[in-house]
Amino acid sequence: MAEKMELKEIEVWDGNMASSQSLRQAQVDVVSAYPITPSTPIVENYAKFLANGFVDGEYVMVESEHAAMSGCIGASAAGGRVATATSSQGFALMVETLYQASGMRLPIILHVVNRALASPLNVNGDHSDLYLGRDSGWIQLDSFSPQEAYDLGLMAFRIGEDHDIRLPVMVHQDGFISSHTAQNIRPLSDEVAYNFVGEFKPLNSMLDFEKPVTYGAQTEEDWHFEFKARQHKALMDSPKVIKKVFKNFEELTGRKYNLVESYLMDDAEVAVVALGSTVESAIQAANDLRENEGIKAGVVSPRVFRPFPFKEIQKTLNSVKAVATLDR
Questions:
Q1: φ, ψ at 149 (rounded to 5°)
Q2: Comparing C-alpha atoms, which of 105, 122, 109, 124 is closest to residue 28?
Q3: Residue 25 — φ and ψ, nearest 5°?
Q4: What does residue 118 show for φ and ψ, rounded to 5 degrees?
Q5: Residue 1's pLDDT band (boundaries 50, 70, 90)?
Q6: How high is the pLDDT of residue 75?
Q7: End-to-end CA gap in the chain
Q8: DSSP track, 272-316
Q9: Quick one: average pLDDT of 275-292?
């Protein structure tokens, strides 16, 4: 049994530490990983937690990001709670296997620390990797700060592992601006966090010899489209589970999350739509516009990027005169 880590009411963590703590508290069974800036500390921290007895799991070092997700797929199919992290070019190398994970309905958690895709080489942020994952069949959650990376990291397990969903989940945060910026974080205790996430309940485990299953079987057109229709329905129905998990987390912590976040939109005439760490800057800009320019500005930000919350976005923007969409 893993040892408990004593946490203060307020810890000073950057986004990478916040994400790795969510993996520790969920007691992830296997992390299969290959390092890439700026996500490397997430898997490094898990390895340290494991070495120090704070996790009862396995850390698998592999030769590439393609192999990292392949290892996650094997461990998840075998019946384990599994996670890893990546960024940018590493994410691009994973793409082939991302479709395997979602097609096999494996609830793997992937922390994506958003970083630009080359060329030119850039270890800081744009959202190229986030967009690249859009059609891979994964649920995508977007955090704007280290606190949110921690919170969504815990909630991702509850969402993906729900037996009505059983899909992998990405938790995004912006490279360096979030991942390497230390802020005050209010963590849950180990016991409370694990009780919230819950014990992992495998479905169709390859190691359940009483109910043998096959993963990755070949299907031709008729069965293929039948299967993909069910997979797509699970993805499009996932907001019901996401909203339930968000509500449960609010009841536990007082921290409220929505499919679409909005700020000062009740009377807004101008809306700024943004993702990631840009949101906090946009909120400051909206406050300044109202105070100094008399412009009724507000901010809208999708918390759930996939499945994209079209109706909620439309409702939030329905009465504004102008929309400024910021893209990193």
A1: -60, -40
A2: 109
A3: -70, -30
A4: -70, 155
A5: low
A6: 97
A7: 43
A8: EE--TTHHHHHHHHHHHIIIII---EEEEEESEEES--HHHHHHH
A9: 96
Q: What is the mean pLDDT of residues 97-119?
A: 97
**How many Å apart are CA 305 and CA 125, to the nearest integer?**
17
Instruction: List C-alpha distances in Å: 222 to 31, 217, 227, 229.
Output: 36, 14, 9, 11
68-104: per-residue pLDDT in tens?
999 999 999 999 999 999 999 999 999 999 999 999 9
Write out the two tokens for 109. Answer: 């958690």
Dihedral-angle region of residue 15 (phi above 0 means left; psi in -120 to 50 means alpha; beta otherwise): alpha
Q: What whole-number distance in Å separates Cα of residue 4 and Cα of residue 2? A: 7
Strand partners of residue 113? 173
The pTM (predicted TM-score) of the whole model is 0.96
Identify whether the C-beta of residue 324 lies closer than 8 Å to the C-beta of residue 273: yes
The Cα diameter of the chain in Å comes to: 69
